[in-house]
Design brief:
The chain is an alpha/beta fold. Helix content is 26%, strand content 19%.
């Protein structure tokens, strides 16, 4: 599938405590496939405030999309979603 000219934003749900060594790896895997096929990505997210040991969803020091952990940081989810949507909104119109 050719994704040239397509813009993609990612979000991932994970558990940074119980799966600290593979936190949001699926998001990283999908990101690589989209980029491989020419897609443009938006919506990187800071790793600040997360506690995990490894993730393939981290490229150049940031998550490739919004990282959500409702098991351990549920109280932060609404603010994170609101901020992320505000940041990507203009890229997806």
């Amino acid at each position: 599938m050719d994704l040239s000219g397509k813009t993609v934003a990612f979000f991932g749900l994970g558990d940074q405590v119980n799966y600290a060594d593979v936190f949001l790896d699926a998001m990283g895997t999908i990101y690589l496939k989209v980029v491989e096929r020419g897609g443009q990505t938006v919506g990187t997210w800071s790793t600040y405030g997360y506690e995990y040991s490894a993730s393939t969803a981290v490229i150049d020091g940031n998550f490739v999309g919004l990282a959500i952990d409702v098991d351990n940081q549920d109280d932060m989810t609404p603010d994170r979603i609101s901020q992320w949507v505000s940041e990507i909104r203009n890229h997806l119109q």
